Amino acid sequence: MKRLVLVFGALLVSAPAQAQSVPDLGKFLPIGAEVETRVDADLTGDGLVDVAAVAVKDDERLLVVVADSPRGLVKIGQAEMDPSPLGSAELKVLRGVLIVDDLTGGTTALSSTYRWRFDPMVRKMRLIGDDVSLYSRTWAHDGRDVSTNRLTGVQISTFKKLKGRGENASYAPSKPIRKTVSRDPIYMGSAPTPERTMGWGN
Q: Is the pTM of this model over 0.90?
């Protein structure tokens, strides 16, 4: 009798794992690409497991989001990322929002956090907010933070003045500057890069 109970209990424990299938990204990535990091979660709100991953091949680095559906897998977002990160990106999902943390650059670093939410009207991942921080890893220059809410159109910039040297170096933030930006939808693939947010390049 004990053996029967144990077997039945094992079946109950393994049942949820069997019910949750993990999408195969193979055909959605460049041939030969390696997955730097990924997260499996329901991004579309239909109860099925979707996946977001950062894939790397040579000098190409991509963020790819694939949704599961009764009709099969479909790509709902893709964006280019800096091919030379300072470590692997971090992906997580909170209340249906995909959060992408990345650190790029060199002695001058750019730390960025992008938040994406699925838009059921167009079935694409929409940018709802992004935070970018510019700083010196060697305390060589001033820094700057830019935080943008893409739903309200409010952007707040804070300049950080370098004070002290060596072990005594620190940043002193200035009074935040608030301005209004467009609230037009921005979908994955057309979002401003951290460099562009900081005013570098086009």
A: no
